[in-house]
Amino acid sequence: QVQLVESGGGLVQPGGSLRLSCAVSRTIFSFHSMVWYRQAPGKQRELVASIIISGGYTNYADSVKGRFTISRDNAKDTVYLAMNSLKPEDTAVYYCNAVVDPNTDWNYWGQGTQVTVSS
């Protein structure tokens, strides 16, 4: 069974920064891609950023482009989400997702980490 453990969430003021981590219990090269999602209260879960493991191609939601950066550390089997210039509307639970096969539902989820942006 694959385990994904997120960390790095917390309370930050508007304009501040946080870096989320997603530690994977299996080599990340086992996966096609890694994805960060978020879900705010009363809203649907939305894709924030993704990275294709082979090649490193990244993709971002329009709402976070230029502010968030997804990256990976192959040696540590960890994926990161660096978040800068945070806004109150970034407040949500952030989830890490490991996609084995994008053509199927074969993927794994972490438990989520809360990010709250407030003064």
Q: Which helices and strands occur, and which strands form pairs?
A:
Layout: E1 4-7, E2 10-12, E3 18-24, E4 33-39, E5 46-52, E6 58-60, E7 68-73, E8 78-83, E9 92-101, E10 106-109, E11 113-117
Parallel strand pairs: 2-11
Antiparallel strand pairs: 1-3, 3-8, 4-5, 4-9, 5-6, 7-8, 9-10, 9-11
Report on this model:
A hairpin with a 4-residue loop joins β9 (92-101) and β10 (106-109). Helices cover 0% and strands 52% of the residues. The strands form two sheets. Strands 2, 4, 5, 6, 9, 10 and 11 form a seven-stranded mixed β-sheet that branches. Strands 1-3-8-7 form a four-stranded antiparallel β-sheet, with no helix packed on it. The model has no long low-confidence stretch (mean pLDDT 96). It has 119 residues and is mainly β. The protein contains no helices and eleven strands. The chain has strands at residues 4-7, 10-12, 18-24, 33-39, 46-52, 58-60, 68-73, 78-83, 92-101, 106-109, 113-117.
Give the rounded overall mean pLDDT: 96
Note the total helix count. 0
Question: Oligomer, anyone?
Answer: single chain
Count the beta strands. 11
Low-confidence stretches: none
Helix and strand succession? Answer: EEEEEEEEEEE
Q: Tell me the β content.
A: over 45%
Biggest sheet, open or closed, and with what strands and sense?
7 strands, mixed
In whole angstroms, the N-to-C terminal distance is 40 Å
Apparent shape:
globular
Using only CA atoms, what is the Rg? 14 Å
Structural class by secondary-structure content: mainly beta
Which bin fits the share of residues in helices? under 10%
